[in-house]
Amino acid sequence: VIGIELHADWEPRNGYVATGAEQLSRRVNKGSMVWRNPQIRPAVVPDPAPGEHQVVIEIAACGICGSDMHMYECDAEGYMLYPGLTRFPNVIGHEFSGRVVESGSAVRSVRLGDLVTAEEMQWCGRCRSCRRGLFNACDNLEELGFTVPGAMAQYVAVDEKYCWKLADIAERTGSEREALQLGALVEPLSVAYNAVFVRNQHHQPGNYCLVQGAGPIGLASVALALAAGCALVVAVEPAVGRRRVAKELGAHYVLEPADDLDENLLHLTRGQGFDIVVEAAGAPTLTLTPLERCLSPNAAICHIGRSNGLTPLNLEAYQRRSAQVYAAQGHAGNGIFPSVIRLLASGQLIAGPMINELFSLEDAPIAFRRLRSRQDAKLMLHVNL
Amino acid sequence: VIGIELHADWEPRNGYVATGAEQLSRRVNKGSMVWRNPQIRPAVVPDPAPGEHQVVIEIAACGICGSDMHMYECDAEGYMLYPGLTRFPNVIGHEFSGRVVESGSAVRSVRLGDLVTAEEMQWCGRCRSCRRGLFNACDNLEELGFTVPGAMAQYVAVDEKYCWKLADIAERTGSEREALQLGALVEPLSVAYNAVFVRNQHHQPGNYCLVQGAGPIGLASVALALAAGCALVVAVEPAVGRRRVAKELGAHYVLEPADDLDENLLHLTRGQGFDIVVEAAGAPTLTLTPLERCLSPNAAICHIGRSNGLTPLNLEAYQRRSAQVYAAQGHAGNGIFPSVIRLLASGQLIAGPMINELFSLEDAPIAFRRLRSRQDAKLMLHVNL
Amino acid sequence: VIGIELHADWEPRNGYVATGAEQLSRRVNKGSMVWRNPQIRPAVVPDPAPGEHQVVIEIAACGICGSDMHMYECDAEGYMLYPGLTRFPNVIGHEFSGRVVESGSAVRSVRLGDLVTAEEMQWCGRCRSCRRGLFNACDNLEELGFTVPGAMAQYVAVDEKYCWKLADIAERTGSEREALQLGALVEPLSVAYNAVFVRNQHHQPGNYCLVQGAGPIGLASVALALAAGCALVVAVEPAVGRRRVAKELGAHYVLEPADDLDENLLHLTRGQGFDIVVEAAGAPTLTLTPLERCLSPNAAICHIGRSNGLTPLNLEAYQRRSAQVYAAQGHAGNGIFPSVIRLLASGQLIAGPMINELFSLEDAPIAFRRLRSRQDAKLMLHVNL
Amino acid sequence: VIGIELHADWEPRNGYVATGAEQLSRRVNKGSMVWRNPQIRPAVVPDPAPGEHQVVIEIAACGICGSDMHMYECDAEGYMLYPGLTRFPNVIGHEFSGRVVESGSAVRSVRLGDLVTAEEMQWCGRCRSCRRGLFNACDNLEELGFTVPGAMAQYVAVDEKYCWKLADIAERTGSEREALQLGALVEPLSVAYNAVFVRNQHHQPGNYCLVQGAGPIGLASVALALAAGCALVVAVEPAVGRRRVAKELGAHYVLEPADDLDENLLHLTRGQGFDIVVEAAGAPTLTLTPLERCLSPNAAICHIGRSNGLTPLNLEAYQRRSAQVYAAQGHAGNGIFPSVIRLLASGQLIAGPMINELFSLEDAPIAFRRLRSRQDAKLMLHVNL
Questions:
Q1: What is the model's pTM?
Q2: ipTM
């Protein structure tokens, strides 16, 4: 069977000493310190067989994530941009949907033929963090499409406990095809949901919300903020194509970054400031550092974007505002996936406009090249849609 | 100037001993123990003058609340139904909007001509509860239209700190008249908001919500639950007129009370149960006691309806569900009024269909008579609309 | 090997129709509807072998819980008092500690020789509730000592994910024996912790706390409230023996139930009321129903005691106080077990005085008989202590 | 009457343009941009008369705060170090206790002779923030001892709503003198309480807590963390005198800052990391920036220390830990003052060892000079103790 495989060379940077375990497993916490010359290509990959608690899913659609792009792109020295947990070669892809076509002997919660999506975070359920319900901070985390085979392929095997059914979306839309496309958006929507409604404990309907960056996660935040009753949703984004999608999703205002942004933003809130600020640009030094005057008292800053290096924050200004910063990663637990599916099934969460275009699995390299410009919101691969 | 005054006879029930302070002030905590033969009538009432921090508001519209009805209605022995804090004779009415026409010397936050609504809870700001920010539990509470002159009148005087501007609603709707009508709904919407989003600390977008009773507070809960991203909103209500309004507001299902309701409700949630249950019927013995099987794990029961007597609850069933009961009263503090106004101004909160008909101030008695049947959602008095 | 086995007759009450699954598995949700003539006796029981993720624990000590007593005691018709999930015959006992003596092939988190205790709630980790982190509401719950073999025995097998190490307690006390005795208290302490600090989201240091009932869970609540900075801890209990232990644990006041209790309690709080009320008497009709005047604004009622039937609550009074009722069951997740162990290890949580006397495994029937009078706090069986 | 007055020259720094309002009122938001050559001296100051809702307090004791020191100390160019809201000349001092000796006509909550302390944050109770209960973010804040006359004097006038009685402490200690000394610690204890238990919403008994900096606020954090059931409390502090007090208060470990601190701290937590980190050193670049590895999953960083400039934070590391930063300022609202008083009155909060020495009012300059070395924890002025 066919899958999109990412290869890279194991060449630890000067000064980076891989641990023995890393050398043995080729599984590293800081990908950008080790992997060089990444390349993707369609390849013949093993046909997965389900473990006792696993199902095999025939992939219908799989979106391309910003993280996928960061694994594919390199810096001036040829090192992969993505700074996180990785093992290569690996089939990538983790924002997906499909049909269950095979299931292990102990599987009880899904059936053959079910339309499903699945969590990318493969939390162990046994470590200290998992036992606290903090699955996103699992001590033994594997990540589908990063350290274990992913979903830009014809089939993928996952534990039933990561699977969530899409039947309610199909019922409302009356279209399996549409349900499967929306289903492939559940993962990025869940990443935003985790940051804005789970990590942030201050959301109240009527809040004013600022979203910095209108890539997929930023757009997901816009869509969710509107569905959850934010009374003002403002997106800031340099790419015109993405600004257009933010507008289509219903953002009240969509702005370009500018020097006097702080002042303009404050004006849009009628001087009251934003209650929620979502950093989804991966550039907190640009998006958070200058943002002082337009925070509401008790403001919550939800930091989702990934970035290397240190972010200088004016904590004194935050103190005057009784503000807080929530650092967010992942989408597991807390009813996040099923809540997003319910919102899509009820029609209250409008996410369809995020999808710009579908490509076949074989054309994945074309889609990756196109996304380099960061004008599109979401490009999606269709497999058996 | 003209106002709707409520008179009643001071005749403490057998066994009820009024305190000396109650006898002196005619201000009692349990109205239904003392007041007999209540009657309302248009009357000439004093023209209010503003205190240092007060404004005088020329009333535009004033809704009739369930509490107003309970002050007007009596039991078989002629005692007022309303069980709470009251002093009579008094001008009633507390769900209102109007224009600021006069202001005290120290007033800074509103100006002449501003369209405003105001909180009914007149919290002192100095007691132990107020200093904790728990204004709804103020130790020295006065209530506009209950213990101090209310808004079914041409003018009312209130402290600026209870006032909230309606300009943003007027700007969006392009109609001062519409803004003032919606403005008179802010108080009941805020009572629901307090219960569902402030007292209840478990709301997440995607929740399933059941609303027991579709009177004004139940309908406000329906409207807010939809605006806040509840993915399933079910209302239960015996009166056909109110069921119609619940449907117009967007409730996914509107049911009549029935014996096997528990089973049907569970089915609507696909076996998952409700995350939020709003008791807005004032009949918890009928609405909560039988409600065991259709609670989601971690369910929140928001009790707003007022009722005398004891409510038998199956706490063992609640334990199995890790459920909780939040007893809610009032609407003050926590950014509630401004959040409701923001939601109305953004167009995300649809409340207009709650208003069935407008009556002149003089026709208040006709409106009160009509509301005895509890078929209407909200009847509203227009004064200078 | 030897264990304390509980036998009972399968005789569903008139009107109770056991489901097919219940008949097949003899596993029923409502024990008191089905089981008659319960009897306990030391018996030869199977020697457990560890599954892949399991360890076998050699029991050191095992406390007798109120639930154990309720399985042992019957009503006038001979039916078991315990109303919950059960399967018989079964080895009972679930408040225990011991040493790991054997471990499955996949076990990573504990080692042979480790001193451990374990959770009684055997949550599946895969159901909808578990995936939300709500392990106490697991859809597929098994309970050690209720539906699967328990710890009043020489050995018990449990999944490593339920095990927590006691090494830090042993290090502080300098005594393995003391650590193992305290370790057998971790479960009841955790049940109280769950109710007062996890389910209840309003604890702040300086709170005033009332504990109704000074059985083991009530005493655990007293000990924890003191460790967590409650500035006033009052216990109410009819049995003189238990009142004595409450006093030893440090409760500021220990009272007998009385008619005018409400008034006296309010006085102890200097008129301010209690912020936290723990129902640990299993008699909410007696302990909660009359409790209106001594609630602080925003008071939290933590209901842990189990009781059949309906509890009449004055919700109107709760509304005036903005009070809430948290129904609590279990002890799983949320870092509860490790937090209790840390508190015992730091010396801040004083729980030792709860243990009245140790009995050998063979003398379990004597201990059960003695506990019928409910004068003792905790009787504990020593096995290989 | 006598008071300690602080004088400084109005010399805005190059580039700082004072607003018209600032020039008129001499009340500036950023003191360190404007005030030069600060000096303190005992002076004859006006005898305060109480307003309608005010009381006059005869001062018993007044502590010297880090902010007082920062108003007194200057940088190389002679500018005051304190960066916040100030107006000079002014009587300074805001951590105090005393006896009510005069009261305004409307005062109800305190009486002549009452022992009291009072909040320094003079929140207006009418602005948008105050109406949300966010008194610490009051839009019209005045600060006692910063913008209005303070408590290093014989008398001070304050609104009754800022006053809290010390009678319960006096009753427990049996000494008015001791109650008044502890009463003068309530303000700094409340600043710590606000950060650790109100702003931070993740405290659970059993948490591990790290306190960076053992000045008065750090020491207050140590004392509170212990009283609230933190199972491990570690303080880090360069000054030997302050480390000694941290130890006396009961901190489990007290360390000097060092290069490999991160590693050592992680070891003290047995590899589990700290759940709560309090920044009370005012040097977040030194104390937070390097602190990555010793954060527990879901860790809360409570930032109280004041510092100019930007603090570089590794948000990527915080994401991996699901960590959050709470920026904290003030002590008003939320039952903070009364909770601290209750904890002192119950004997659970041990704060007395924080007081190193008492000085007379006239010797204030000596005490200020001595505190320059930052070896003492709390120096306190006695007035009429």
A1: 0.96
A2: 0.95
